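#structure-requests
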Amino acid sequence: MRHAAPTIGVALAAAFLLGCRSTRIEVPETDYTEMSSLHYEYEVVFDCLSASILEEGFQVARADRDSGDLETNAVPGLEDHVRGTQEGRRIRARVEKNGPKDIKVRFAATRLEREYSPTTPGEWRYVGSDAGLVEKIKQRFDKNVEKRYKPAERG
């Protein structure tokens, strides 16, 4: 599983170099979930969080390992042709290093909406937190960390 980090790095770099854009949407502080006091190396936590986001089907629009920031593009969802709107989701996260093997992760999974027509979709706007997506990311993150720290089986 040690080969996953270069693959994730390549995917993040490709997304950045392709010029993926996303509209800046302010997310209330109350939407952020915090996973603190993680006793792992910073790089492992950043890579596990990145992998969790990618595995959930999101494209990373911005990733900065130095600042710990990750932000995805909005993922379009259902279209409501009666209302002329489309649903979407986005993830923003920050990995903070408090000390050696003392890491805090803050992230928000956000529901979005925009005016929609096939020729001219509007700008995304904040609707609310996506609690179901928060739980999925947390579960994926825990599994990714477990994969890296699980002792090798002897046989």
